[in-house]
Write a structure and sequence with these properties.
This protein is mostly helical and 83 residues long. 70% of the residues lie in helices and 0% in strands.
């Protein structure tokens, strides 16, 4: 990735492309986890395995994140001095 300069279009385009790829990969991974959970839950053979997969899905996909953490990651800060 190129170095950051204010309003440097190439840097911004590369960053956007990288973030887009990251979101796409994460979404595919989440869908695969949910589909595997559905398949295991439908089989109903092994209750322990169903509980384990359910715990993994909840721990990895349904974790609460505070608003402050999201805003910091997006580049907003509490103090106006840094915004």
């Amino acid at each position: 990735m190129h170095a950051y300069f204010r309003n440097h279009q190439l840097y911004l385009a590369e960053k956007h492309e990288w973030l887009d790829r990251h979101v796409t990969k994460t979404s595919k991974r989440a869908l695969l986890k949910i589909e595997s959970y559905k398949l295991i839950a439908q089989s109903g053979e092994n209750d322990e395995q169903t509980k384990l997969v359910e715990k993994l899905v909840k721990d990895s996909l349904l974790t609460p994140i505070s608003n402050r953490a999201v805003l910091r990651k997006e580049g907003f800060y509490v103090s106006n001095l840094y915004n």
